[in-house]
């Protein structure tokens, strides 16, 4: 069922209250924020990692830096209507006070960034208040024994990729297809080395809130969103030295998600993983065990399906490592691969994994590095919000080159969601992102960004058992210049262009384009 909601009724007060609640919850663990994309270990665990180098980049002790950003901007085709239809073009003003704060010591690291964004347009029907919160942290309660991690986030999100993306990460295009999503989680972790052996145990508790209030008019709305309580736990015991000739460990992992109205999600996994060096640079790796058969039930858990994998890990030097495995899971043949290479100015990584997932587990319990926040301009997001489990088949490759004045990065990705129930239609998102940044002068930085996204999905029709496949291809280009006139003042000139080329099996099309230009000033008192 699709819910139609007027975003202009009572949105500001409820959203601020929810954001405050999320912030307070995250503070319990001296932490808070979001993740972004979990890349689980080959056996599918998402054990919170102890320690991070992020605190080395933070000032010692308590740091607090307020800021105010203002902007005048012009947007063409704000509501993303198709070519040939009357479109909304308008200018507007933006005011965004915010702050960045951190705390770093030998045992504690925490960071939070918050921004309240107010927009006023020529047509007051599109006036809007938005918020962005990102925070996380870690407290080593008993060094080398026990630590506590937490995160929280509040941000714009796309309800349905078929109705447009969050172009530029600005939250201004397609207001009827934008909503807010908040997450918070806390994870106590025990990890201790006993001679040649190491024991690990963790528990994670997370919450996800969907605010299904499309902004502006018309409103899209959605009906599969479900606020959730997400939990995960795990334990393992095995050899402590990852470089030993023989490594082994036994493990158990458990996941549980409870939703407002939807069926719960439960998954378990237990097994043995080992590795044996068969040469100076080559290691035989594999695992075997039992897991929940989600094809039979996604609500009961249990350990009623066998799994195994086997492969090789190649490590010719400390800068290069690669691993590949083949195996069998409850969903059939399974594959995993990864490679990483680090040089003086160039880094390269690529990976492919197949794991059962549910949307809210990704959002609230995803992996993160304490003390390190997500980028200022987030990615496009993948797939629809929903509470239905799926097998994620994710491939990603990234290359990054850093010179004295120029930084280049190229990212390729493919994310397939194979839903485990017959009511949900599978979807695949693939694309590429290229970013170039160069110091043009001592106080002037130029940045160029190119995104391409190809989104495919089967859509149900009124005819029983008949689906229509849709394919939407999006391109956006952003050019940005940042000039720092003083230690406290910076001016940012920005222009962006977007276009969509969409079609379905019945011959229908969805084609539109738009652009924006903006001049921003950022003051840090």
List segments where confidence is low: pLDDT < 50 over at least 5 consecutive residues. 1-46, 217-223
Number of strands: 22
Rounded to the nearest angstrom, the distance between the terminal CA atoms is 49 Å
The shape is globular
Q: Characterize the quaternary organization of these chains.
A: single chain
* Continuous helix count: 2
Element order: H for helix, E for strand: HEEEEEEEEEEEEEEEHEEEEEEE
Mean pLDDT, all residues: 85
Main β-sheet description: 22 strands, antiparallel, barrel
Helix content: under 10%
Core attributes:
22-stranded antiparallel barrel, single chain, mainly beta, disordered N terminus, 2 helices, 5% helix, 525 residues
Q: Can I get a quick summary?
A:
With 525 residues, the chain is mainly β.
Question: What would you say this structure looks like, in words?
Answer:
With 525 residues, the protein is mainly β. It has helices at 11-27, 359-365, and strands spanning 61-76, 89-104, 108-121, 128-142, 146-158, 178-194, 197-211, 228-239, 246-259, 265-277, 282-291, 305-317, 320-329, 332-342, 346-357, 390-402, 406-419, 427-441, 444-460, 467-486, 489-504, 509-523. The longest helix has 17 residues, at 11-27. The model is unreliable at 1-46 and 217-223 (pLDDT under 50).
């Amino acid at each position: 069922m699709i819910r139609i909601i007027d975003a202009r009724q009572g949105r500001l007060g409820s959203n601020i209250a929810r954001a405050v609640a999320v912030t307070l919850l995250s503070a319990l663990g001296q932490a808070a924020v979001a993740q972004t994309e979990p890349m689980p270990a080959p056996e599918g665990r998402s054990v919170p990692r102890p320690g991070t180098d992020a605190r080395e980049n933070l000032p010692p002790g308590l740091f607090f830096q307020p800021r105010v950003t203002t902007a005048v901007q012009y947007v063409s085709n704000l509501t993303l209507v198709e070519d040939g239809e009357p479109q909304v073009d308008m200018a507007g003003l933006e005011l965004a006070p915010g702050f960045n704060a951190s705390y770093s010591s030998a045992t504690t690291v925490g960071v939070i960034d918050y921004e309240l964004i107010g927009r006023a347009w020529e047509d007051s029907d599109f006036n809007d208040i938005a918020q962005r919160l990102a925070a996380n942290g870690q407290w080593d309660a008993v060094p080398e024994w026990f630590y506590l991690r937490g995160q929280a986030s509040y941000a714009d999100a796309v309800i349905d990729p078929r109705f447009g993306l969050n172009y530029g990460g600005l939250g201004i295009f397609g207001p009827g297809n934008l909503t807010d999503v908040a997450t918070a989680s806390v994870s106590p972790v025990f990890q201790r080395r006993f001679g040649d052996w190491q024991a690990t145990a963790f528990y994670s508790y997370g919450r996800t809130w969907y605010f299904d209030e499309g902004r502006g008019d018309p409103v899209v709305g959605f009906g599969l969103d479900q606020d959730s309580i997400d939990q995960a736990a795990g334990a393992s015991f095995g050899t402590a030295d990852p470089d030993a000739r023989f490594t082994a460990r036994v493990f158990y992992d458990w996941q549980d998600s409870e939703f407002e109205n939807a069926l719960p999600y439960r998954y378990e996994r237990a097994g043995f993983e080992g590795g044996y060096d068969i040469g100076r640079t080559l290691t035989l790796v594999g695992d075997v065990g039992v897991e929940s058969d989600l094809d039979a039930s996604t609500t009961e858990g249990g350990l009623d399906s066998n799994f195994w994998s086997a492969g090789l890990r190649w490590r010719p030097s400390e800068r290069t490592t690669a691993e590949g495995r083949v195996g069998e899971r409850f969903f059939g043949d399974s594959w995993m691969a990864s490679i990483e290479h680090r040089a003086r100015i160039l880094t390269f990584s690529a990976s492919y994994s197949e794991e059962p997932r549910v949307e809210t587990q990704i959002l609230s319990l995803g992996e993160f590095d304490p003390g390190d926040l997500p980028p200022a301009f987030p990615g496009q997001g993948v797939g629809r919000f929903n509470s239905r489990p799926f097998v994620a088949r994710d491939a990603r490759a990234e290359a990054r080159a850093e010179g004295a004045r120029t930084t280049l990065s190229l990212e390729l990705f493919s994310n397939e969601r194979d839903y485990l129930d017959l009511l949900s239609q599978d979807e695949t998102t693939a694309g590429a992102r290229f970013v170039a940044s160069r110091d043009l002068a001592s106080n002037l930085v130029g940045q160029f960004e190119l995104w391409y996204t190809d989104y495919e999905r089967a859509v149900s029709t009124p005819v029983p058992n008949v689906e229509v496949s849709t394919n939407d291809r999006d391109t956006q280009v952003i050019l940005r210049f940042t000039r720092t006139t003083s230690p406290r003042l910076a001016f940012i000139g920005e222009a962006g262009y977007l276009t969509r080329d969409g079609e379905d099996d019945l011959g229908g099309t969805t084609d539109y384009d738009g652009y924006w230009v903006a001049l921003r000033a950022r003051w840090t008192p």
